[in-house]
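Researcher: Sequence of MerR family transcriptional regulator follows. Predict its structure.
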Amino acid sequence: MSHSVGQVAGFAGVTVRTLHHYDDIGLLAPSERSHAGHRRYSDADLDRLQQILFYRELGFPLDEVAALLDDPEADPRAHLRRQHDLLTARIERLRKMAAAVEHAMEARTMGISLTPEERFEVFGDSDPVQYEDEVRERWGDTDAYRQSRERTASYTKDDWKRVTEELDALHLRMADLMSAGAAADSGEAMDTAEEHRLFITRAYYDCGHEMHTCLGEMYVADPRFTRMYEDIRPGLAAYLRDAIVANAARHGG
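Model: Prediction complete. Tokens:
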């Protein structure tokens, strides 16, 4: 069974002009001609076209494609193995490219314009990007979420390091107060809790005392937050929550 040049162009997703060019340069000469002299392609011609298009998709120039396909020593199975190897390598490259684009999209969504290496340097294994889907689902419609994205959109690596170091210092100060035996509703603990609230307001979004209290409760209710604070000092999650609640109460929150 043979096919017209128009049919083959439709099958292969190429133009008739491309098929004419392949014929002109001897890359794909149709096996038959109609009585009127029109090109007719056999199934074997279609197999060759498929191989041509595969190598072209991988970026091989036409002269190299011709040399590969016309090699008298080449085994058809060797062509398939070669194509499989090339395709597998390309899939891996594309996978890595897709992962890089995905990271860029996540970072842009979070307003964190850092490379994965920079994010690891700043956040370690606590990279906030990994929680973006959950954050967006839980708070995506809130003013706080939108405000946080706007405020952090222009942060550089140094900005994020400064913010992270400031928060770490606040956590450590609160842990030291706890270890020293200061009550969670002591003046020092409540003052540190207030600094924590003001830090969130400066760095991310306007955090009133009611919002701050909700955060404090989440630090205890969400095992991930609890674990983070427990790693700093056992008991810190509940102590920080209690200090936040006490501070909100003294401010009428």
